[in-house]
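Here is the promised in-class demo. Please do not try to memorize the tokens; focus on the logic of going from shape to residues.
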């Protein structure tokens, strides 16, 4: 090669879906802080209160899903998620235990990742109603059906981050 391109490589933004959850501290503030701090968010699902799945006995969660149109790589998205969790004061101790904020990369159009600390699509959560119900709101093409055994009866619409609702 005799020269290098001086210009940024144009990249087509693609759709990414992130799952957000909180069941400790001011849950509404943690969700709101995540949505406001994440890059390239174009749509936010309603907020659902959901029964905890896995781990020790713990309080109910608030869950939602955001849709991004972004040039960020999967790794860039994970970094943005972890940054929001740290900003919410998350302490990682008990596996599947209570957390102020959890932000997961669920899906990136046209991309799969299988690395030690990052798997996309998210392997486990796609069977859970606390992901599927809000995911269906912002990406219905990704949710053809919600299985009867996914816990759909333990997911209650409680408000939205844009309008009223929350404490
Ligand atoms: C079989 C066995 C299939 C276990 C799935 C799924 C385990 C999800 C743990 C599973 C299995 C999890 C949230 C939550 C967690 C959340 C609600 C987890 C463990 N995060 N419950 N539990 N909302 N409602 O965001 O996700 S941590
Ligand atoms: Mg999670
Ligand atoms: Mg997580």
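The designed amino acids, position by position:
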């Amino acid at each position: 090669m005799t020269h290098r391109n001086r210009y940024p490589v144009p990249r087509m933004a693609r759709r990414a879906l992130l799952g957000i959850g909180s069941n400790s501290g001011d849950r509404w503030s943690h969700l709101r802080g995540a949505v406001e701090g994440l890059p390239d968010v174009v749509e936010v699902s309603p907020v659902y209160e959901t029964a905890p799945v896995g781990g020790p006995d713990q309080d109910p969660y608030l869950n939602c899903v955001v849709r991004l149109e972004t040039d960020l790589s999967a790794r860039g998205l994970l970094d943005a998620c972890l940054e929001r969790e740290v900003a919410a004061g998350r302490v990682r101790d008990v596996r599947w235990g209570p957390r102020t904020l959890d932000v997961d990369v669920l899906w990136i159009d046209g991309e799969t990742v299988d690395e030690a600390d990052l798997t996309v699509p998210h392997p486990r959560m796609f069977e859970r109603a606390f992901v599927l119900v809000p995911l269906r709101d912002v990406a219905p093409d990704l949710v053809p059906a919600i299985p009867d055994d996914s816990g759909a009866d333990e997911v209650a619409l409680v408000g939205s981050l844009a309008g009223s609702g929350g404490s």
